Amino acid sequence: MGDWVETRRESMTDGRVRLIVNGELDAASAPHLQSEMSALQRDAASVLLDLSGVTFMDSTGARLLWAAAASAKADGWTLELAPPPREVRRVLDLVGMASVLAVAP
After folding, report:
1. End-to-end CA distance of the chain
2. Structural domain boundaries in the chain
3. 5-103 is classed CATH 3.50.50.60
4. Pairing label, strands 5-11, 17-25
5. Are residues 59 and 30 in contact, defined by beta-carbon separation less than 8 angstroms?
6. Three-class SS of residue 60?
7. What is the pLDDT of residue 105?
8. Which of 44, 52, 54 is nearest to 17 (CA)?
9. In this structure, which of 10, 32, 39, 93 has its CB flanked by the most CB atoms within 10 Å?
10. What is the pLDDT along the chain (105 residues), one digit of tens a residue?
């Protein structure tokens, strides 16, 4: 499994911030994404998380997304997931998170 993930922020015309994630999202790389998500929580009221470039995600990545969804609900900010690739969708389905995260059209 990889030990890296790249992120890039992009402002959208509707006021949301898109966080684009590329690479492998696992125990080694999750702290980087967690740091980015924490910074966005302070800076943006609405985040679209784009995992289309994620090539691998394990349960650590799923837990991070679960925590981000819970934080969004508790703290009053919006987290949406862009339609993920099949590999990511499979992990989310396996851990029962597909219904927890709002998937943007």
Report:
1. 30
2. 5-103
3. no
4. antiparallel
5. no
6. helix
7. 66
8. 44
9. 32
10. 445 677 778 787 787 899 999 999 999 999 989 998 888 877 788 999 999 999 999 999 999 999 999 999 898 889 999 999 998 989 988 888 877 888 876
Tell me which amino acid residue 28 is.
A
**pTM above threshold 0.90:** no
Written as six digits, the tokens of 12 are 């959208």
Instruction: Name residue, tokens 């470039």.
Output: 53
pLDDT of residue 1: 41
Question: In 3-state terms, what secondary structure has residue 33?
Answer: helix
- Give the SS3 label for residue 47: strand
Residue at 85: amino acid letter: P
Q: Return d(Cα 93, Cα 28) in angstroms, integer.
A: 22
